[in-house]
Specification:
Length: 284
């Protein structure tokens, strides 16, 4: 069994980005990321802090706009409009979830698609679905890059995705399809998830349920990508996979922490760098 070590790969990506960002600085451009955080959900606060710290490590300018949970949709939309027009801001990221009185789709659609470093705008979602260049959500793109780094070719493989969120499962399905995999999408209404996972060459799971994927659900020698993050009562951080038992029968598996998580952050930085490059070709 080989661990898919996202911690080491993401550190290498960051190292390369430092040089790329320095080269861009010679052309007078410092990539800028604006992060909008509404409310004080502890997990969201922690993610936003991690993103800001990562920007700092590679020389990307970042600013976090902290909004009270009572902010109206119109107020939030006007902040986005200002950021859309700000030439020093290349990427705009609205941390999800948003409070229920705000329509998430309306907010995401207000972001200039050329600044949509999360890849959540329907413009980018659509381009990804037809395999055109686009911003791709950081977590699934990080998964693809992690697999590629370990020379895992998904073409022709049977891939099962467990969990069909707009943030992870759906874009991952599109990426896998574009890369030539046969993709099964399983979700909350799937009657028998194990009927799918048992036969899969690659299982990717991002549901947020500790211990969901057990050893008897996985084929001998399969590849398992754990995208879940769960905090146990003991304080321990675990994924959605019963790592201890599943790891005994797989060929490759991501650890949690140290697998997909750091890849997400590194990929967001890459997306922000990509957005900054639009300054050279003029942003719409
Ligand atoms: N909430 C959970 N994951 C993400 C993410 O990748 N981006 C944003 N904006 N919010 C999230």
């Amino acid at each position: 069994m080989t661990l898919l070590d996202g911690k080491t790969l993401s550190a290498n990506i960051e190292k390369n980005l430092i040089t790329q960002v320095q080269d861009l600085a010679k052309q007078g451009i410092t990539p800028g990321l604006a992060v909008i955080l509404v409310g004080n959900d502890p997990a969201s606060c922690a993610y936003v802090q991690m993103k800001a710290k990562a920007c700092k490590r590679v020389g990307i300018y970042s600013v976090t706009h902290e909004m009270p949970p009572s902010i109206t949709e119109d107020e939030l939309l006007s902040v986005i409009e200002i950021l859309n027009k700000n030439p020093n801001i290349d990427g705009i990221l609205v941390q999800l979830p948003l409070p229920s009185h705000i329509k998430t789709s309306k907010v995401l659609e207000a972001i200039n698609p050329q600044k949509d470093v999360d890849g959540f705008h329907p413009f980018n979602v659509g381009r990804l679905s037809v395999n055109l260049d686009s911003f791709v959500p950081a977590t699934p793109l990080g998964v693809m890059n992690l697999l590629k780094h370990y020379n895992i070719d998904v073409s022709g493989k049977d891939v099962v995705i467990v969990g069909m969120s707009n943030i992870v499962g759906k874009p991952l399905a599109a990426l896998m399809l574009n890369a030539g995999a046969s993709v099964s999408c399983t979700h909350i209404l799937t009657r028998d998830v194990s009927a799918y996972t048992k036969n899969a060459d690659i299982v990717c799971v991002g549901v947020g349920k500790a211990g969901l994927i057990k050893a008897d659900m996985i084929k001998e020698g399969a590849i398992v990508v754990d995208i879940g993050i769960n905090r146990l009562e003991s304080g321990a951080l675990v994924g959605d996979v019963d790592f201890e038992n599943v790891s005994k029968k797989v060929s490759f598996i991501t650890p949690v922490p140290g697998g997909v998580g750091p890849m997400t952050i590194a990929t967001l930085l890459q997306n922000t760098y990509k957005a900054a490059l639009y300054r050279l070709t003029q942003r719409a």
